Amino acid sequence: MRTLFLSLMPNGFIPVLIVFTGLALILGLVTWRTAFGFIGLLLLLVVFTPFVESLFNSLPLGVVLLVMVGLGISLFTGVLRAVFGRGATDHFVGQVMYAVFAMPFRFIGYLIGRRRRL
């Protein structure tokens, strides 16, 4: 989730994040390991951004749309997990998956049942 959030940040905001990470380290809000891991993640994003951009430019539109749908779903579940917790999010995602997989069968049953009545 943190990587997704950082990848959506503009490049001009990265120095501000580094400064706030240093401030949090000075104030004792984060440990050395967390701060260096966060700064390392920022630097990896800066280095790999051109490669990822060229990869997405070379992919067909259908694949990019599928990746964007997956990104949206993972962002949505991340927000749900942050708001409601892991157990409630897992239950909700299970219910939604059941509804999505059962929908075509219910639709076929609706069409067959309607045809019998006529």
Short description:
The protein starts with a helix and ends with a helix. The chain has one domain. The chain is mostly helical.
Strand content: under 5%
Low-confidence stretches: none
Structural class: mainly alpha
Taken in chain order, the helices and strands follow as: HHHHH
- Termini gap: 52 Å
Helical residue percent band = over 70%
Mean pLDDT: 84
- Our Rg estimate from Cα atoms comes to 22 Å
Number of domains: 1
Main β-sheet: number of strands, strand sense, barrel status? none
Tell me the total number of β-strands. Answer: 0
How many helix segments?
5
Question: Which descriptor suits the 3D outline?
Answer: elongated
Written description of the protein model:
The chain is mainly alpha-helical. Helix content is 87%, strand content 0%. The protein has one domain. It is built from 5 helices and no strands. The longest helix is centred in the last third of the chain and has 32 residues. It is elongated. The protein starts with a helix and ends with a helix.
Please describe the structure with a list of short key phrases separated by commas or semicolons.
118 residues; mainly alpha; 5 helices; 87% helix; 0% strand
List the helices and strands and how they pair.
Blueprint: H1 2-7, H2 14-27, H3 32-58, H4 61-84, H5 86-117
Helix pairs in contact: 2-3, 4-5
